[in-house]
Amino acid sequence: MSHSSAVPGYRQLFALTGPWFAPVAFVARLPLAMAQLGSLLLVSGVTGSYGAGGLTAGALAVANAVVAPLAGALADRVGQRPVLLVQSIGAALALLALVLTATPGRPLVLVLGCAAIAGALLPQAGTLARVRWRLLASRAERPRLTETAFAYEGAADEASFVLGPALVGLLAALVAPAGALLVAAALVVVFGLAFALHPSATLTRPDRSLPTTTGGGPLLPPGLAVLLLAMLGVGMVFGSVQTGNSVLATAAGEPGLTGGLHALLGVGSVLAGLLVPALPARWTLRRRLLVSAAALLVLSLPLLAVSTLLPLSVVLLVLGLSIAPTMITLFSLVAEVAPPQRITTALTLLAGTTGVGYALGSGLAGRLADWGGHTPAYAVTVAAGALAAGMALAAQRSASVPQRVADRVDAGASGPTTTR
Fold first, then answer.
1. Cα separation of 88 and 90, whole Å?
2. pLDDT tens-digit profile of 349-359?
3. Keyword Transport: yes or no (predicted)?
């Protein structure tokens, strides 16, 4: 697997959309990455209670995980543009309301309500971009570019969840936590609307030529449940690792390093994700999932032995190498399993499952950490890796999970379809 063999695929991929699509879609996902930590810092600072801040951040995250598939289903029915227009404006207003209501003396239930509305409306730009890339690659008759697109989007998601919290921390230090949420509101208006109005959004209009029987098929086709459980495991890895990192860093007298430690996981994941298109084309999606999920389990085991921050840093960087390949392959498989008329629904459901897993992993690891410190918290990470690996093994035996081998990109194929 080499960096140079992946570069031509990325060049051809970005030629499909023109120069603005990728940067607009990337910035459009930052508000979601910023809002959870921003709301936690804001409410904790105003109330003096980390519990209230955690409840607010949790309300935002859970609402997004629950409502995103519903928004995806609506986008499948009417197209992405109208859904994104409403989401972008509504999310900005809800974030503004959250800032205005998070003041001393205001009922916490009002703050939680604003946070939940903001979470429900914040668009999952990365998932919606994947749908557009898939349609563009299909029209250009370059199916291998779908794999490249999902690899790029996986890396972009990881980068956003490193950059977003870092931006929140910087703004909270220089201005105030409220300033971070106001910036998130401004970004979702400007870049959310730009993403909605990009010409590629017209590709997601319902295709009336598709058989109506597909549209009436089950929301959870056979095989999708196994893939969702695998992604639940990946989400639990994120949540439990962050909790374990916080406990270990605090015990070492360096609680401020928690964010940096978690960022190392993202750095390894971004690097591996960008190189996924260079994997041998003979590897089936099932095989890729099994190898990457098994690596997730094996590379998480050293967490049970770490007791200082330097070894932990190395383990996290290496563990990150298994995360993006696992997530990218899961998105590719779900795109194959889902009925064409419900592709956005399925992909947003998969993305929402990550959030549910994060909350579950964080909660379990926190309870165990209260009992026994960082090692029991990291035990949740290992168990989550075992869940992902077990579901990957189950996918090998499922006739409803496709084997597909991605076609290689043919540099001499017909020119790309450009939407400008």
1. 6
2. 898 888 888 87
3. no
What's the pLDDT tens digit per position in 32-51? 988 987 888 888 788 887 67
Contacts of 77 (CB under 8 A, 6+ apart): 206
d(CA 39, CA 115): 8
Tell me the whole-structure pTM to 2 decimals: 0.79
Which residue segments constitute the domains of the chain, with CATH numbers given? Answer: 1-205 (1.20.1250.20), 217-406 (1.20.1250.20)
